[in-house]
Amino acid sequence: MIRRLRAFSRRLALTINLVVVACILLSYLATQISPEKFPYLAFFGIAYGFLLVSNIVFVIFWLLVKKRFALISAGAILIGFNFMASYIQLLPDLTSTEIPSRAMKVVSQNVKLFGWYNWSKNIANRDDMMRKLELSEGDIFCFQEYFHNSSPGIFETKELLKLTLNAPYVYDEYTSTVGKNQHYGIATFSKFPIINQGKIEFKSERNNNMCIFIDVQAYGDTVRIYNVHAASIRFSQEEYAFIEKINEDKQEADIEIDEAIGIVERLANAYSRRAQQISLVKAHSLESPHPVVICGDFNDTPVSYTYATISDNLIDTYRESGGFGLGSTYLGAFPSFRIDYIFHSKGLDSSDYYRYEERISDHNAISALIWTQ
Hints:
Deoxyribonuclease I, Chain A, about 25% strand, 6-stranded mixed sheet, 2 domains
């Protein structure tokens, strides 16, 4: 009887193991198939972290029970080793890089309107964020969810940022304006002269998602900087409350089917919209006459079609220039992931990737030193 029970337990464990392996293989496939064609495949990509840990657990389990079965999960992990390296950096970069004086620091952050809607503390929040950005000593600042009030003396941001960051050159674009003076959009501030600028509009978007670019002359070279804010998920207040319940692990909270279905549908829709947008940005960057830096809030994880598309033939500064651990940049209610990135052409070098602490925005600021080879 005991022998039969053990045999059954092993068969059950092997079956579950094979399902987990199939799921992690589907997460790899999700990076190659556009969500425009099959949006639900992308969910395996967002579950990659859980699937990776599950496969590691099975490797350990089989090493203790039946060693040859450990090869099943070990093989699946090795097949996707490149994905794991983008998802998590297990060892800090201890190599010493000689940084030339022509290196420029690129800083990117979704600034969440500088706390504009926190009426009782919005001025203090704005000033606190700007002080931290000033301390970064950046040369190029790319802001998503940027806000500017054009009424004099009312929650000033643009002129204050120019002075605080010592970045007098600005290109901003607004996706919406409320009451003729409240402008919402995206902005890039530069210490270097802007010699060209433009935007890539995402026609399906009504909110604050778009991409802008500037060409800057820095130390005798011209570099194109893309500032991207890709499609957000746009959960409703009820759906955020449902996510909070899950995060707090409330035992008494019932699983509400409508909210769960709503979350799945919004995620699928956002995956599909981002696929369109990132394809536009990638195609535009391939036509650039200059080396490129592409940064911003991409709203997608390192195991996704978005990441695979935009990073193709580019360098991810987190991976190559000092990132460590998971590098999560999103601080909101939805599970934290690395969704903000700084990429650059292979004709550029980079070092000193850094993620800044944050308490006001729901995104960490990130930066990297970048220079021409």
